[in-house]
Amino acid sequence: MKIFLSLFFILSIFSCHPKEKELKITEYVNPFIGTAEHGHCFPGAIRPFGGIQLSPDNPRSGWDWCSGYHYSDSIIASFSLTHLSGTGIGDLQDIRFLPVVTSPDSNAIPEEYIRSGYALFSHADEQAEPGYYSVVFRNGIKTELSVTDRCGILYYQYPADSRYALTLDLGTARNWDNTTETSLRKINNRMLKGYRKSRGWANDQRVYFTIEFSQDCQIYVGEEKFIPLENGQKYKGPKCYAWIDFGKHTNKILAKVSISSANTDGAAANLEKELSHWSFDKVKRDAKQAWKRQLQKIKAEGHNEDDLKIFYTALYHAYTAPYLFSDVNGNYKGPDGEIHSVKKHAQYTVFSLWDTYRAIHPLFTLTQKKRVGDMVNSLLKHYDSYGLLPVWELAGNETNCMIGNHAVAVIAEAWLKGIRNFDGEKAYEAMKKTVLAPKAGMDAYRRYHYIPFETENESVSKTLEYAYDDWCVAQMAKALGKEEDYLFFSGASRNYAHLFDPSTGFMRGKSADGEWKQPFSPLYSKHRDDEYTEGNAWQYSWFVPHDVEGLIALHNGKEAFSCKLDSLFTLEAALEGEDASPDISGFIGQYAHGNEPSHHIAYLYNYTGQPEKTQFYVNEILSNLYKNTPDGLCGNEDCGQMSAWYVFSAMGFYPVNPAEGKYQLGCPRFHKITLKVGPEKKFTITANKDSEKHIYVKEVYLNGEKLERTWITHEEIMKGGELDFVLDTRPARPQQTGR
């Protein structure tokens, strides 16, 4: 009997081990990374690409509080349902709850009352993991949060013998937006329905909601003072505050809430389909399982725990946005202000395209092919109701934030990589119409083949970004057999060359008469009122990802180009000008990793036959500009772009030109990465990562064959197979080029 029990115990250990190892993936995620300094991340409960982001808000709303939360704060003002991840502008933070232990003063102004209810907390009393957040206030109230795709569940535990209450804030104006209309209807003693409409970064935002409580409550509502709200009664006004009294029946209260941009019926339908039960633990468990399914699509194996935590947190952040926007009825609010419906695909929102076309969307083409099709269809639905593809779409609005027409790049990349679950002809129509629209300097760009600096701010950056978009349209035209358009847009994609000044080696502002703008310093930067977008000439002059050979030729060859790159990374990390963008951060010389225009630059050494320099600088960035701490990001997360760069670079390759279908090689961060590329297919990356000094690539083998180039193709990855890096502690100097 003892032998049998011993064998049973041993077998139990071995049978549980794979499951325990699998579950470890979610434990590597640290949602507090990026919540300090300028990361602008939030730590709350979300599901992959989920339509609700249930997270705490601090009282402040300055630039570092774009997500609603900053690690430096010690006060929580509310728990709200919508948040932005890593953006440089704030918005959302809608439908704000706060548990309190006091009763309302009928003569108190609600805003002052709610302000006095701000809750102190310590980070030692916070916990966050994928799909879950909790905190214990110093007044003894514990709040736990979890989510489904479209619903949130809040669990409050109050100190014994206290008042059990909540405040509900629909109307507080914040720096980022202003409430325009609110409504709250008491359906019965346990259910509320209503909406909040606002104007901010999203010019016309609508959040309809349904709230259900686990026990009966009394509702008091108002603007100047609280008054009782009876069953069936509705309160409507420019602001709305509610005080929800649960009495003293039990100190454990649950609240279920759902939102829709279309109507309260959609919010109610979400609850009925996704959260018909009252088990907080089930919601938490299901959310964690949802994250595990997504995170395990890339399995990293290494000995450095911090590297694994940074990697999986980066993957977690990369799968945060875009957000699910259509309710379970398929409805959502469009940019024309009308309610639209989808049938076969989900509608998404929060497209930070100037940032995310560079690495986030390429990552999705490897790991989220179904969602890529839905996202492209979302862009096309925007086109249907707006007339153009979006620049920066938020909550069913065009914000026209940042530059370029990079929905074009996202669509072309998907099509060229074989993702075809959308109408190619319609997509091309939208792409062509968008890049020919006379807006944001495009009319001057078509007339002069560059944008003269006196006609448009950010003229250099816009010219370069438009040239890349033209290249993407050209490739789509070629794929669809549109030869005339292919020739036109291919020619236009070389417009970048008009702004290259051979006497300085920089892309510079040029007048309509062909004169260079004076004075000129490549170190100078002025936010939103200069030739460069969130950067200077040093940082933006490398943006020709579709024609690196042409850019090298403008520099008179690989040697001169490489020397210029050396200068970029070794110059003093200083900017000239009194109003440079705070987004320019994460310096190595003049290279600024904290902002997107720099993200491809370290890989350009591959094109000069000096891949060891790419390997060196990529390792410097991975090692020094990402940390497993709240201040672990050197710049705004920007809806996952900062993290996607890390994910790609840690795997050992990066999409310099996303729509090209090639990835430039660097050096893997781990000794093994397994990438699931299909139901039964894997692409495995191995490396003899014996120490942190093994950063130089001696040889690379693809499926056992020595690779005599510094790139691999998307097709090679998606076929499955093995990429084996032979590493050394000293640089090799292979005679390789980027092509």
Key phrases:
739 residues; alpha+beta; ten-stranded antiparallel sheet; six-stranded mixed sheet; 23% strand; disordered N terminus; disordered C terminus
Short note summarizing the structure:
This protein is α+β, with helices and mostly antiparallel strands and 739 residues long. It is built from 19 helices and 37 strands.
Can you offer a commentary on this structure?
By secondary structure, the chain is of the alpha+beta class. Helices cover 30% and strands 23% of the residues. A 10-stranded antiparallel β-sheet has the order 2-5-6-7-8-17-12-11-10-15. Strand 24 (392-394) and strand 25 (397-398) form a beta hairpin. Helix 5 (305-318) packs across helix 18, helix 8 (369-386) crosses helix 9 (407-416) and helix 12 packs antiparallel against helix 13. The longest helix has 26 residues, at 2-27. The radius of gyration is 27 Å and the shape is globular.
Number of helices: 19
Q: What general form does the structure show? A: globular
Q: In what order do the strands lie side by side in the largest sheet?
A: 2-5-6-7-8-17-12-11-10-15
The whole-angstrom Rg is 27 Å
Beta strand count:
37
* Percent range of helical residues: 25-40%
Termini separation: 68 Å
Largest sheet: 10 strands, antiparallel
How much of the sequence is in beta strands? Answer: 15-25%
Secondary structure class reads: alpha+beta
Q: What is the residue-mean pLDDT, rounded to a whole number?
A: 93
User: Runs with pLDDT <50, length 5+?
Assistant: 1-23, 735-739
